[in-house]
Amino acid sequence: MLNKALIVARREYGFNVRRPGFLFAAFGMPIFLVFMIFIVSLVIASTEEDLERLGTIGYVDHSDVLSEAVAVPATFATFEDETSARTALDESTIGAYFVVPEDYLNSGDVTLYGNSGLPDALHDAISDFLVANLSAKADGELPVERIITPVHTTYFLINSGRTLNEEIFILVFLPFIFAIVFMIATQVSSGYLMGGVVEEKSTRIMEILITSITSTELLVGKIIGLGALGLTQLLVWLAMGGITLALGQNRLLPLPPDFNLSLDLIPLDFVVVMLVYFVLDYALFASLMAGIGVMVGSEQESRQYAGIIGLLTSLPYFFFFFFISDPNGPLPVALTLIPITAPLATIFRLGIGPVPAWQIIASMLILLATTIVVVWASARVFRWGALLYGTRVTPRLLFNLIRRSPQSGGVVTSAVQEHRLS
Amino acid sequence: MATNTAISVQHISKSYGNFKAVDDLTFDVYGGEVFALLGPNGSGKTTTIRMILDILRPDAGAIQVLGGPITDATKDRIGYLPEERGLYRNVPVLEMMSYLGRLKGLSGNDAKKRSLALLEKLELAEHAKKKISELSKGMQQKVQFAVTVLHDPALIIIDEPFSGLDPVNTLVIKALLLEFRDKGGAVVMSTHQMQQVEEMCNRLLMIHRGQQRLYGPLEDIRKQYAQHAIIVEGEGNWSSLPGVIRVEQAQNGARESDHQAMLYLDAQTSPDAVLAAIASSRQMNIRRFELAVPDLNEIFIRVVEGERHAQ
Question: Which ipTM was obtained for this model?
Answer without folding.
Answer: 0.77
